[in-house]
Amino acid sequence: MERAGDNDPVVLLHGQPGSGKEWRRVIDALGPSVVALAPDRPGYGNNPLPAGGLAANVRWLGRHLDGGPGPALIVGHSWAGSVALSLALARPELTRGLVLVGSVGPGAITWVDRALAHPAVGSVADRWGARVGRRPARRAPAALLAFLTEQTSLVRDLPAVLDALERITTPATVIAGTRDRVVPPATARRLAERLPNAELVSVAGGHQLHRTHPRLVAGVIRRALAQSTPR
């Protein structure tokens, strides 16, 4: 888990596949005045928990916040945007604000997502992973299995979250790359329009804005903190 600072808490959630290390440049740009926590989500990196769907990620994050930093600004990239939104629905008392970077949202699920969520794909990956895992010199593709588990959850569970967007009153900022080929900019616009207390920030960039524009993302986080942190 990457950590910096000793004041305002921010939890940065990576997408799929990935790890908390992806946020290093944003954490550096935030500086020492901000507590920035970038944990590996279940199924990835050094997190010992098995991969899970949306509900499992929300339970994990809720326990993490209950046991330590408490209410925080939640920053979610891509798939993890659905975790941030779901936490705001299930545990609003833990969600000081939201920053959604290239987040999934209305219209984000494509035929590719549905194909990857098909049970046959997961079955093949499980068998292949078991064979690879028996070889002493190689590791089973845990990140791949986590990815497929989360794809199934995306297709199955995201629609219910989207149906409840109007109930999320937590202040939110949606950051979208105008050249994002993973989550279309139209998704970001619709997400910002349906969240009652949200603004849209468009950036000339792609899907990995936390890597390509870390200072800009850090600036949005700082502004969100200033607007949402009780003083």
Report on this model:
The chain has 231 residues and is an alpha/beta fold. The chain has one domain: Rossmann fold, CATH 3.40.50.1820. It is built from nine helices and six strands; from the N terminus they run E-H-E-H-E-H-E-H-H-H-E-H-E-H-H. A six-stranded parallel sheet has the order 2-1-3-4-5-6, with helices on both faces. Helix 1 (24-30) crosses helix 9, helix 2 packs across helix 3 and helix 5 runs antiparallel to helix 6 (142-163).
Topology readout:
Layout: E1 8-13, H1 24-30, E2 34-37, H2 54-66, E3 72-77, H3 80-90, E4 95-101, H4 111-116, H5 119-133, H6 142-163, E5 172-177, H7 185-194, E6 198-203, H8 209-212, H9 214-228
Helix pairs in contact: 1-9, 2-3, 5-6
- State the helix count: 9
* Shape assignment: globular
Q: If classified by CATH, what would the architecture be?
A: 3-Layer(aba) Sandwich
CATH class: Alpha Beta
Distance between the termini: 27 Å
Q: Class by helix and strand content?
A: alpha/beta
* Secondary structure: number of strands: 6
Number of domains: 1
Q: If you consult CATH, what is the topology?
A: Rossmann fold
